[in-house]
Amino acid sequence: MSTADRVLPWRRHNDNASSVALAPVLEPYRRFHPRATTDMIVRAYEAAAEAHGAQRRSSGESYINHPLAVARIVAETGLDEISIAAALLHDAVEDTDLTLDDVDAVFGLDVAGIVDGVTKLDPIQFRHAVDDAGHIRPKHYVDVVESEVGVFDRIVQQRRSDG
What we know:
Layout: H1 15-32, H2 39-52, H3 65-76, H4 81-89, H5 92-95, H6 100-107, H7 109-118, H8 123-128, H9 141-162
């Protein structure tokens, strides 16, 4: 078996498919982060797309469209590549064979922590992450990102049910 045959699916790059699907995410991301690389975002998209495969929503729409919509909102708010990667992967751990250990091994503990936390949102925990002046306490940054991704997830779900 050649080395190329043993590369994990999300480490293989199909630039055309990724570029087209990710354009609505990468455009606002690059506007906020013009010098940053997009490697993690592309890899997260590829991992999520591979994990979701041919999954369809009840509407018949490809399942990957939902994480892409959440990631777009995350990008439009100016959050970083870790947050966008977590948005792309947030449903894959719940709905596919992709595990948190897989996410941790490939994308790191921060992404895995956010993905894990999105499914365990606690509004009280979020309130404690912000001080009286409205500033995010540094030790609670991941909690806030988890909450934001969770809120964006619900926004996309609501848009789908209304439209």
